[in-house]
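Field log, afternoon session.

UNIT: design team B
ACTIVITY: writing a sequence onto a fixed backbone
BACKBONE:
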């Protein structure tokens, strides 16, 4: 099952997974364009999720499975002869349809159309939600005081502190290239060597060495991009190009500043054990939440909230292990997570060099080998 490309490219950490997804297309020819299509137009047996964008089907299914703590086969017929997602043999699938309808009804009738209730509200990773409160009662965490809201900094102030924490505008402006060497670690803990090169203005290249030396590479020269693997070479589709433009910068600072007027600070939250300010950048199909460490000012998490008809589905990247390189702070690890357990991953770097000579040929599309 592949995820929408636009989502898969969110971070460098996720970019390597994209490679597999897009290359999978090259085997069967180009994907039928799902843009603008609904689930019922592309699938055989959609009865309640009518109007769900086709590219969200996998995301929503993974969300169902993770909310209940099950795999696809809990609701679907999967056997040695194949996967039959359209079949209705299993009572669990029929129950799930009733549940989907119930969730939509509750939200429409009781919560003014907000997605206040989702599968996770009740299920919390179990097939049978609890209906009796467990005793003894859990000790309650002290409620955060109401006054704290009044003292929240503005988005502009948080971004200014972030810039200072990174090393300041002057030090950032001096960065012209960055080479990162390390490993990408998949959900099973398997490590593959990884190299990423970013160069001003807006160029990006990554190379992952898979098992038996197979290489997967992505290149972006500021305008167009490509990816290659033992299966072939192809151009990046337009939505992946847009995501590449974000990847090909040293920090998301300029992009965040451009949005600052529409962002708002929602409060404080705990991220990896530390207090962080949460800055929301609302959008119609997706909203972004950026978490900045309240003490250090550094960006520690980016969470994307994908709006679907059956609830808001999150995915996130954590920025960890910031160290100083040439006067600026750089995260030496990035950890990503989503509702598909296979999207869990980590990138860890052992060396990060800046402003060393860059071989420009890494960005250019290689000649196709026949
Ligand atoms: C909790 C039950 C449940 C789980 C778990 C689940 N699904 Fe589904 N799935 C459904 C229901 C219900 C439908 C039909 C929705 C409708 O009728 O609108 C469906 C429909 C589908 C379809 C469309 C089939 C067609 O052609 O009509 C696909 C594809 C699919 N699921 C894939 C998956 C995958 C992949 C997983 C595992 C990641 C998964 N599902 C996990 C309940 C589930
Ligand atoms: C309001 C609470 C609530 C929400 C929201 C909810 N469920 Fe349930 N669900 C339950 C309860 C309670 C049961 C157990 C029913 C029973 O005991 O008969 C259940 C059972 C199920 C089962 C059958 C499990 C089994 O062991 O056979 C499936 C499948 C299921 N839910 C899917 C979903 C999906 C998918 C969603 C989101 C679209 C969802 N549920 C949302 C309360 C909820």
């Amino acid at each position: 099952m592949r995820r929408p490309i636009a989502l898969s490219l969110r971070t460098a950490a996720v970019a390597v997974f994209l490679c597999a997804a897009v290359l999978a297309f090259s085997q069967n020819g180009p994907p039928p364009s799902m843009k603008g299509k609904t689930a019922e137009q592309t699938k055989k047996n959609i009865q309640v999720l009518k109007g769900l964008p086709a590219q969200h089907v996998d995301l929503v299914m993974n969300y169902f499975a993770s909310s209940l703590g099950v795999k696809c086969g809990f609701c679907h017929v999967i056997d040695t002869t194949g996967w039959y997602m359209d079949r209705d043999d299993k009572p669990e699938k029929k129950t799930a349809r009733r549940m989907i309808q119930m969730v939509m009804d509750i939200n429409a009738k009781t919560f003014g159309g907000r997605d206040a209730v989702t599968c996770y509200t009740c299920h919390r990773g179990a097939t049978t939600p609890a209906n009796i409160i467990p005793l003894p009662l859990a000790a309650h965490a002290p409620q955060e005081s109401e006054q704290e809201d009044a003292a929240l900094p503005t988005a502009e102030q948080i971004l200014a502190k972030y810039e200072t924490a990174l090393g300041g505008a002057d030090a950032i402006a001096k960065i012209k290239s960055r080479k990162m060497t390390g490993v990408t670690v998949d959900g099973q803990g398997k490590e593959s060597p990884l190299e990423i090169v970013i160069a001003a203005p807006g160029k990006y290249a990554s190379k992952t060495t898979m098992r038996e030396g197979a290489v997967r590479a992505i290149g972006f020269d500021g305008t167009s991009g490509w990816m290659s693997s033992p299966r072939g070479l192809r151009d990046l589709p337009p939505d992946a190009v847009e995501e590449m433009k974000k990847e090909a910068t040293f920090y998301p600072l300029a992009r965040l500043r451009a949005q600052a007027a529409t962002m708002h600070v929602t409060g404080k939250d705990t991220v990896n054990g530390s207090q962080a300010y949460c800055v929301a950048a609302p959008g119609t199909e997706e909203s972004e939440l950026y978490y900045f460490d309240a003490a250090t000012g550094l960006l520690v998490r980016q969470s994307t909230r994908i709006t679907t008809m059956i609830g808001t589905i999150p995915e996130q990247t954590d920025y960890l292990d910031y160290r100083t390189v040439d006067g600026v702070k750089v995260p030496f690890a990035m950890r990503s997570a989503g509702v598909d357990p296979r999207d869990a991953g980590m990138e860890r770097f052992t060396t990060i060099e800046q402003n060393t000579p860059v071989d420009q040929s890494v960005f250019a599309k290689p000649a196709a080998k026949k």
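LOG NOTE: The two ends are 28 Å apart (CA to CA).
NEXT ACTIVITY: expression trials, pending approval
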